[in-house]
Amino acid sequence: MPMSPKQHRGEVTSDLLLDAALRVYADAGEQGLTVSAVTRASGVSLGSLYHHFGSIDGLVNALLTRWLGRLLGELADAVGNSHDARTGVRALVRAYLGFVQAHPDVSRLLHSSRADQVGMEQGRELRDVQEARMPPLTSWVLRHVERGEIAPLSPALLESLLLGPVVGVSRRWLTLGDVDLDEAARILPERIWRSISADGA
């Protein structure tokens, strides 16, 4: 069903605000991400921001939801195209680190204390997105557990072993810059694979 002109205008306004919020965050960091900065950067009125998102936290929540969904979608595509568990781990690590390199400002926000705070305070939408996107990854893991390739550990533990090291390296690169992500993409997959493979090799 096509959008009405009013719906289209609303979507355009939302996109303007989301794009402006990301630009403000990239230029001024967490402290600079204020209602006045976003309305100034977007050219959208204060009333429109509150109408669409309710608050600056609602706007940040929507921005996180948009990009978390995209990241998880790329990870699901990466493992979905793999032939076995080992190549899937390599694809997942490279997809995650590739996303971080391609979108450093977004990734800085996704890995920020602001994201953690919004996630704790208003995390229902974020959890919904994560739960909607995680099933392809979860079913991929469970399929390879059933095949005897991945150790039969709890899903939460397997997720931590798979993503924990990649998230840690990404945070370090984004905040300190003292990690070579290309080197990490070469080394981490095999190390992670050893931690989850059924035979530990």
From TrEMBL:
HTH tetR-type domain boundaries: 11-71
Pfam families noted in UniProt: TetR_N (PF00440)
Residues in coiled coil: none
Keywords: DNA-binding
DNA-binding region: 34-53
Domain of life of the source: Bacteria
PANTHER family: HTH-TYPE TRANSCRIPTIONAL REGULATOR RUTR, TRANSCRIPTIONAL REGULATORY PROTEIN
Protein name: TetR family transcriptional regulator
